[in-house]
Design a protein that fits this description.
The protein is of the alpha/beta class. It folds into two domains: 75-252, Rossmann fold, CATH 3.40.50; 257-335. Helix content is 51%, strand content 8%. It has 16 helices and five strands. It has helices at 16-20, 25-33, 44-49, 52-68, 75-91, 111-129, 150-161, 171-184, 203-218, 238-247, 260-271, 282-285, 287-294, 298-314, 322-326, 332-335; strands at residues 100-105, 139-143, 189-193, 222-228, 248-252. The chain has a five-stranded parallel beta sheet. α9 links the parallel β3 (189-193) and β4. The longest helix is centred in the middle third of the chain and has 19 residues, at 111-129. The protein binds adenosine-5'-triphosphate and magnesium ion (MG).
Length: 342
């Protein structure tokens, strides 16, 4: 009954757009196998001799690079990857009562980044250990839709696997198919993002939370949840909540302090810049200023540096300075006087 697309890793039959959608198997596999090339800076003499088309291509590549920069291995990412790997080992032989992990924190503090880096790590390890098992799906990544119901949760799993979905279909059959495919495909990690969309104060939300719990009991995998301030969503209160709280560990994400970790983050970002006239160490010296501008929020920092770097290519200045950073409009969150409460 399943119409499972089990393409080889790296295949992206649905094209560029699917590639960006991590919540489908094709998109997820594209993300896991993606090797981002960091453009090399051409020597000045060669750059100035490029004709207009080639020069535009060269600049476009660098704009593309600066629009993403790199994923910095922050202490939080390391902590989440270590905790996730440990739980997978602990759960390996558990037939029931498996443990899970929650990643909780304010908006744009790197929860999704850490969750997908954990997923990628687990998948890369699995593929290395089982190179012939190309049909395996070691990691599932889904997001909880707003005002989720049990059916909506099941449909997200089905969509990831590309199972045929009938809106009138029976949820029990759908759940059976999802569990069957998950077991066959040796799913090891189920990453569920945007968990704050689960409103356990409503009946549908509480039932959706039960559906997740049901999946976590039937699928022999480690479940990792991420969302905004999960301890406040009601997910951990009441009888259901107590059960979850007893089995999950929690990693909190939040703003950086103005400390060596903040400086290391800035240094890593500065090292990844590909600008012709940027003086190395400029951003490192601006660490206090950058902290004031962003309140230590990693999402705001990336916004600011990516924007300034793209501007530097577009306007030909080829460097980031305090003045050019001043000229970038920050995101709304970092313009508020205080950081959002955790
Ligand atoms: N370790 C990191 N290295 C580089 N960039 C990062 C890192 N962590 C987060 N970012 C960047 O910060 C921004 C916010 O990160 P992310 O989307 O992971 O946060 P979030 O907590 O999931 O946000 P939301 O609550 O809105 O879902 C993104 O642009 C992301 O690329
Ligand atoms: Mg997110």
């Amino acid at each position: 009954m399943t119409r499972l697309t089990r393409s080889a890793p790296g295949d992206d039959p649905a094209g560029e757009h699917q590639h960006l959608q991590l919540t489908t198997l094709a998109g997820w596999r594209g993300f896991v196998t993606e090797m981002r090339a960091v453009p090399d800076l051409l020597p000045e003499a060669i750059r100035s001799s490029l004709d207009d088309d080639k020069r535009a291509c060269y600049d476009d590549e660098r704009i593309d690079h600066h629009s993403r920069l790199l994923v910095v291995q922050t202490p939080t990412i390391r902590q989440i990857i270590t905790a996730g790997r440990r739980l997978i080992q602990l759960n390996k032989n558990a037939h029931y009562g498996r443990c899970g992990l929650m990643v909780s924190g304010p908006a744009r503090t790197g929860k999704t980044t850490a969750l997908v880096q954990l997923g990628k790590t687990i998948e890369v390890i699995h593929r290395r250990r089982h190179p012939r098992a190309t049909a395996d799906i070691p990691v599932i990544y889904i997001t909880v839709p707003p005002a989720a119901t049990p059916k909506m949760i099941a449909m997200e799993f089905a969509r990831f696997f590309d199972l045929p979905i009938s809106r009138r279909g029976n949820i029990t059959d759908l759940a059976d198919a999802i569990c069957g495919v998950s077991i066959d495909a040796r799913v090891r990690l189920v990453a569920i993002d945007e968990l704050h969309n689960l409103n356990t104060a409503t009946r549908a939300g509480a039932e959706a939370s039960d559906t997740l719990k049901y999946f976590s009991e039937r699928i022999p995998a480690t479940f990792v949840y991420a969302g905004i301030s999960l301890e406040r969503t009601g997910l951990l209160s009441g009888t259901r909540g107590e059960q979850i709280a007893g089995r999950f560990s929690m990693v909190r994400t939040g703003p950086f302090g103005q400390d060596p970790q903040w400086s290391a983050l800035i240094a890593a970002l500065e090292n990844s810049l590909r600008l012709h006239r940027h003086r190395p160490g400029t951003l490192a010296k601006l660490d206090r200023y950058l902290h004031q501008r962003t309140h230590g929020m990693i999402g705001s920092l990336l916004w600011l540096i990516r924007s300034a770097a793209i501007n530097a290519v577009l306007d030909g200045s080829e460097k980031i300075t305090k003045k050019s950073l001043d000229g970038v409009d920050a995101d709304i969150a970092s313009q508020s006087p205080r950081p959002p409460a955790t």
